[in-house]
Amino acid sequence: MAVATLVFRSFTRIRVALFRQALSCGHLNGDVEPEIKSGKSISPSALDRLGNVDFHTLFALAALLRGRSVSRAAAQMEVSQPAMSRTLDRLRIVFQDALLVREGNHMLLTAHGKELLPIVEKLLETTAQLAGVNAPFDAATQVRHFSLACNEHIQLSLAPSLLTALRTAAPSITAQFSPLHRSGAVDALASGELDLCIGSAIPSAPGIHTSLLYSEAFVCVMRKPRHTGGKVRISLKDFCALPHLDVSPTGLTLLGELINRTIRKQGGSRQVVYTISSFMAAPQIVSETDMICAIPARTARRLALPDNVVVAELAFEAPATDVSMYWHNLTHRDAACDWLRAEIRRALPAR
Asked: In the CATH hierarchy, which fold is given to the domain comprising 215-321?
């Protein structure tokens, strides 16, 4: 049974005293904020508005603010989209703020909505502790939408096995993968826009948790040598002598810089002729040119290779990158997100 349901059945109405404490810094607009700032008691009209917020509505508010989507919040709360829209209308009256506004095809939090999200999350955590709730996540029956960010090469190596497992174990779970932008990852996790990031070198920040998934060495995608038998290996001398095609999904050339640092320590350097954004395009380009391409080993195993292209091992100290999971305190004790992180570990392909 969902935590929201357990709390809702345990308490019929939220305690105004708890809500008043959470909002004591002036996070209500209208007639409440000036009274709090002046030290006066909250007016009856303000208390009436707060009194209309029960635990179920508070969980709906958290789902709306975190997911920034009426449809996703409705799925999470197991109600219809029109019902969630009506809940949002009531919350806008309670807080005298739009909370969510449409910008093109997306919904954005208002400044007041951004202020409310951490307060509501903390309040729900406190009420769950008061209720003694520690319910497991039932993946087979519960509805949940996850937002993840990771770049193409990680999706290639992880998503097939992960999504296959989820379709079997959790048919009502949905997920959206988006490109990982390191500069905005921390803010996206902290705002609830993302549940999880998977990648490398995301800046450390307060409230961010990290767990290493694997360290991955690079291999070389190249045209098949004329005379070869068994595994193909490429020396540092040949690796540096041949022209290179680099892949940079985000345009930051972080993988290329890692390769350069590693071979520089061994006295080598290379010539990068072209840089593209897609790993999937690399084998075809290599097959029709004289270039080679260094890519992560797990990714190479997922690529469709033309007949004249081979994956060669590096016959020298190969560059390697650490791939980790990153998440925020908002989801650290979320049973559903904890389950997802465990499923990701189980879905990792063999080396």
From this structure: D-Maltodextrin-Binding Protein; domain 2 (3.40.190)
